């Protein structure tokens, strides 16, 4: 019955479906990105790969499979060698025991054959960390649903029934086990299914798991499918243990605010221990015997690692299993005990009472301050605090910031020459650059002449081989300059052409930063739009999460009639809510595109904002003559407008469909087509809001007219939504 | 001030919730009595323009309220049936929020809030979140918000629903106190809510206005229509089966079964005095 109750809770059910779909989509998207990056590299061709000392996956596999027996032997002999060293000879030391244990563990692998195969599906799923966190979130949702009876005032009723105590606690343990089993099965079915579809390799699942380089230190003698099964089972057990633990902690205090705070403190502490402690620390036991590892086991499941516990080597994997079992047992016992002995109505403990009193005081002070907010401020407060919008914003900003890559770029060869030229001569064509190029061309010519002379002298035997090699080296050192001059000449040629054809005085400038912003070029071909789409989708999702309650909440909590009976509760309040949406869109726009600009500025600074945008050869066909800075501003304004119109669509969905249905409608209309478009379903671009949001893509791929039509279509869609919402809010109900 | 209702009708699909209502209101307290589904809430929602009417007019001093719009709503105080709140708001925040939506600002708003909170006896807990308030307290906050901006027309939909007798008396007293120079509507099916304070009572049944009169007039209209049948506990069950709308009364003299109707049975003692609005309610609204 308990399970039925939770499953029948549409909110919980929809959230779970959403989690599953999001995880699968995130995984597929990540893999598609990885594949396209790989394809971009392979565009250099096999020769280039070999030239750069790179290997294809197959070659790498072959080399690894051949070297695996040697690798095992090396570990065993290394251990033998080390035991000869004095510090490893002390028999009661951790070092000695660790060597012995490692030797014994690896000995079991001797004779194991690593085969050549395709294991990328397994590797990609095993290293897809997002799934771990999603599983944890699912567990928390499941546990929270246990407290529904409390919120609905049914705790007293349940507690008074014969099965409302220990039996209920046991039923809830069963719900956690069953719920996690179903969720994990579906999740890994989706992930492994997508992985094998994307990468293939199903025929190699009979090979030993050590055939994949990722598992070379796994001491379990299992093949790929057995490992796969074990992996899913372990994740299921870990998820069960973790959700039990969350339930136990949430039961500690009567106040959910306090227990949530306690849970956050425990998890944050464990996270710090897990990530902050080094393997050499004396507290290393806290690193691996750590609850955070139950959420995110990391490489513990496939790497060989022992830690020091009172001079005894403890295998991390075994410690992990023990931790899991202990957590399960303890959590079941404590949770069941609390559930069966805690009465619905009881006096609160002294400490809890004091903390609650303190929180009440803080709350009172906050409310005193908040009561002075304007209606606009109240609306913002409702979004950020009452509907936990601040949490969505923090997660969103964290995701955006974690994607920023501002590693320094080292310029070599032609790149370095060009960098110097751009820093010196960027700007309008004032003749200085041309003079410089003429001078450099003369230098180059002279060098070429000298080189030709040296070649003929070498052929006639006038100079030795060594002298010829020196001459050759000197000449090749000028090849970077030659490349630079060639590139500059091409740009100058373009500048002359555009002057002739359209009368535009183009500037000489570095276009790399602009390329990243306005073309499909990121750090590699095609990445630019991908990243822009990713950011756009995130912006849309956060917009839905923030704004979905603006109109619908007033209705859900029964405030709508009251507000609409007030003189300013219709048009004025409607416009205030629209202004709040505008502010939200502006904020999302500033953060999303501000961070994008920041990233580009760090990598390839955009300069010469006053230059005509046609100075960039990929903007040659843009019909309006405007400064690059103005174009940048225009693009950002389009981003804002599209987001604002998207906000109107969110409002329309949530005004016409109540509660969670509204959010689901917004996700289906706005996110689903966008996600499909990103996953490569091109037909979705016609119904996806991402299309006008990544405005520069339509501009580059379909031209100016199409781009304007797309933006206008979005404006019309947004305006229709706006009018529908206004009609619904400002006019009376029929 | 005169509020005129002319031919006001409301249909939900095929269901006629309100049938061509024609009535005029001037200053005073109007109790609207009727069983569930009589059209009380529909009438309230039409008065607040929260619901689109099917036909008819509502005019304030000769002007249609739809054309008056904001001007009309500025004179309106509305206390809805359900206790809809932002649970995280404190009473103070809530009143400020509604006050601002009513166009009140600064000292005027603060002064009114303090005055009303004191009146409804909630000043001490003004900064506590709504979620921590009892049903009675929440109802008083709702009453306070309805009175913000000193409205000339106050509309209360089931103001005492779910309250204990003491809270009921409190709210009734406040309503009686503030009703001077105002048109106050109280829709309820609890007769005692309006018995002593209403200047006129409207009886609504299946969307129709059955009668509109002062409580005294209504009581007078049922003189000779109520009777009591002395009975034993054994006889009571039979009487209850026969007269569905009868009322059982336990007195010192014994058990009585009180019934209302045009044709009282011969065994019933006709009551000429001590009639109440409850008899009026039973006579007009509960008889099939």
DSSP summary: helix tally of chain B = 11
**Helical amount of chain A:** over 70%
Percent in strands of chain A: under 5%
Shape of chain A: flat
How far apart are the termini of chain B?
Answer: 37 Å
Describe the structure.
The complex is a heterodimer of chains A (about 725) and B (about 290). With about 725 residues, chain A is mainly α. Chain A folds into four domains: about 1-45 and about 115-345, no CATH class; about 55-105; about 415-510; about 515-730, no CATH class. In chain A, a hairpin with a 2-residue loop joins strand 1 and strand 2. The longest helix of chain A is centred in the first third of the chain and has 34 residues, at about 165-200. Chain A is built from 32 helices and four strands. Mean pLDDT of chain A is about 85; it is low at about 45-55. Chain A is about 70% helix and about 0% strand. In chain A, helix 2 runs parallel beside helix 29 and helix 17 packs across helix 27 (about 570-605). Chain A has a two-stranded antiparallel sheet. A two-stranded antiparallel ribbon of chain A has the order 3-4. Chain B has about 290 residues and is of the alpha/beta class. Chain B has two domains: about 5-220, Rossmann fold, CATH 3.40.50; about 225-270. Chain B is built from eleven helices and 14 strands. The radius of gyration of chain B is 21 Å and the shape is globular. The model of chain B has no long low-confidence stretch (mean pLDDT about 90). The interface between A and B is large, with 36 and 36 residues.
């Amino acid at each position: 019955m308990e399970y039925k109750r939770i499953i029948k809770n549409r909110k919980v059910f929809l959230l779970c479906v959403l989690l599953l779909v999001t995880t699968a989509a995130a995984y597929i998207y990540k893999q598609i990105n990885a594949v396209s990056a790989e394809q971009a590299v392979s565009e250099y061709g096999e020769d280039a790969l070999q030239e750069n000392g790179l290997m294809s996956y197959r070659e790498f596999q072959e080399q690894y499979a051949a070297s695996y027996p040697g690798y095992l032997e090396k570990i065993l002999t290394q251990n033998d060698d080390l035991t000869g060293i004095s510090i490893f000879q002390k028999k009661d030391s951790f070092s000695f025991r660790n060597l012995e244990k490692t030797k014994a563990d690896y000995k079991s692998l001797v004779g194991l054959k690593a085969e050549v195969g395709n294991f990328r599906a397994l590797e990609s799923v095993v290293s897809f960390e997002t799934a771990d966190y999603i599983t944890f979130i699912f567990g928390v949702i499941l546990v929270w649903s246990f407290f529904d009876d409390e919120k609905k005032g049914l705790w007293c009723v349940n507690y008074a029934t014969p099965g409302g105590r220990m039996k209920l606690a046991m039923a809830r343990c069963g719900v956690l086990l069953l719920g996690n089993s179903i969720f994990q099965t579906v999740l890994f079915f989706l992930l492994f299914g997508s992985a094998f579809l994307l990468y293939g390799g199903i025929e190699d699942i009979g090979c030993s798991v050590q055939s994949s380089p990722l598992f070379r230190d796994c001491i379990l003698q299992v093949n790929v499918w057995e490992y796969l099964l074990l992996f899913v089972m372990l994740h299921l057990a870990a998820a069960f243990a973790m959700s039990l633990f969350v339930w136990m902690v949430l039961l500690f205090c009567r106040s959910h605010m306090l227990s949530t705070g306690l849970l956050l403190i425990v998890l944050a502490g464990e996270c710090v221990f897990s990530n902050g402690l080094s393997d050499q620390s004396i507290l290393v036991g806290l690193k691996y015997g750590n609850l955070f590892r139950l959420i995110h086991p990391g490489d513990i499941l496939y790497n060989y690692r022992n830690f020091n516990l009172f001079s005894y080597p403890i295998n991390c994997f075994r410690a992990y299993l023990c931790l899991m079992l202990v957590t399960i047992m303890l959590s079941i016992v404590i949770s069941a005990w609390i559930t069966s002995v805690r009465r619905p109505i009881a006096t609160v403990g002294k400490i809890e009472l004091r903390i609650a009193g303190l929180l009440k005081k803080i709350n009172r002070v906050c409310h005193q301050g908040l009561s002075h907010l304007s209606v606009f401020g109240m609306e913002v407060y409702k979004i950020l605090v009452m509907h936990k919008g601040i949490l969505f914003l923090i997660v969103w900003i964290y995701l955006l910031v974690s994607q920023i890559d501002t590693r320094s770029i080292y310029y070599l060869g032609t790149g370095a020459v060009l960098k110097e030229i751009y820093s010196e001569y960027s700007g309008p064509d004032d003749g200085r650059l041309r003079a410089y190029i003429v001078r450099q061309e003369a230098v180059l010519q002279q060098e070429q002449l000298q080189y030709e002379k040296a070649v003929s002298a070498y052929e006639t035997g006038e100079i030795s081989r060594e002298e010829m090699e020196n001459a050759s080296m000197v000449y090749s050192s000028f090849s970077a300059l030659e490349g630079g001059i060639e590139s500059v000449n091409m740009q100058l040629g373009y500048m002359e052409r555009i002057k002739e054809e359209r009368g535009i005085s183009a500037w000489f400038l570095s276009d790399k930063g602009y390329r990243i912003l306005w073309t499909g070029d990121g750090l590699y071909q095609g990445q630019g739009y991908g990243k822009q789409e990713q950011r756009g989708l995130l912006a849309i999702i956060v917009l839905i999460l923030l704004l979905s309650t603006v109109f619908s909440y007033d209705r859900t909590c029964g405030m709508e009639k009251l507000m609409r009976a007030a003189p300013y509760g219709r048009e004025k309040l409607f416009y205030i809510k629209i202004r709040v949406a505008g502010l939200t869109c502006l904020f999302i726009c500033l953060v999303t595109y501000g961070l994008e600009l920041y990233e580009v500025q760090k990598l390839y600074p955009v300069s010469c904002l006053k230059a005509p945008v046609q100075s960039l050869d990929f903007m040659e066909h843009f019909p309006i003559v405007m400064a690059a800075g103005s174009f940048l501003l225009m693009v950002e304004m389009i981003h804002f407008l599209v987001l604002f119109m998207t906000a109107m669509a969110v409002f329309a969905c949530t005004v016409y469909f109540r509660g969670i249905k509204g959010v689901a409608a917004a996700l289906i209309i706005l996110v689903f087509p966008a996600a499909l478009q990103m996953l490569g379903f091109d037909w979705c671009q016609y119904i996806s809001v991402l299309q006008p949001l990544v405005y520069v893509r339509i501009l580059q791929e379909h031209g100016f007219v199409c781009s304007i039509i797309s933006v206008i279509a979005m404006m019309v869609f947004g305006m229709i939504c706006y009018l529908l919402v206004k009609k619904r809010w400002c006019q009376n109900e029929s | 001030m005169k509020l005129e209702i002319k031919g006001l009708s409301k249909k939900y699909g095929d269901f006629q919730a309100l049938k061509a209502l024609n009535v005029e209101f001037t200053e005073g307290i109007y109790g609207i009595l009727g069983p569930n589904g009589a059209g009380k809430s529909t009438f309230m929602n039409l008065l607040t323009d929260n619901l689109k009417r099917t036909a008819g007019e509502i005019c304030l001093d000769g002007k249609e309220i739809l054309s008056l719009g904001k001007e009309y709503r500025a004179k309106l105080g509305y206390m809805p049936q359900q206790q809809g709140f932002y649970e995280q708001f404190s009473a103070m925040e809530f009143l400020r929020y509604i006050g601002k939506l009513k166009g009140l600002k600064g000292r005027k708003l603060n002064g009114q809030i303090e005055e009303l909170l004191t009146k409804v006896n909630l000043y001490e807990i003004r900064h506590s979140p709504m979620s921590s308030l009892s049903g009675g307290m929440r109802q008083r906050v709702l009453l306070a918000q309805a009175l913000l901006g000193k409205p000339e027309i106050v509309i209360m939909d089931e103001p005492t629903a779910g309250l204990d007798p003491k809270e009921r008396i409190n709210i009734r007293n406040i309503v009686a106190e503030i009703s001077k120079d105002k048109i106050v509507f109280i829709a309820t099916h609890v007769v005692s809510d309006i018995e002593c304070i209403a200047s006129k009572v409207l009886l609504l049944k299946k969307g129709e206005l059955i009668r509109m009169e002062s409580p005294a007039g209504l009581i007078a209209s049922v003189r000779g229509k109520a009777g009591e049948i002395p009975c034993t506990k054994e006889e009571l069950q039979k009487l209850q089966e026969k007269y569905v709308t009868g009322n059982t009364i336990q007195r010192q003299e014994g058990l009585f079964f009180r019934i209302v109707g045009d044709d009282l049975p011969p065994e019933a003692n006709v009551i000429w005095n001590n009639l109440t609005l409850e008899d009026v309610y039973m006579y007009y609204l509960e008889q099939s």
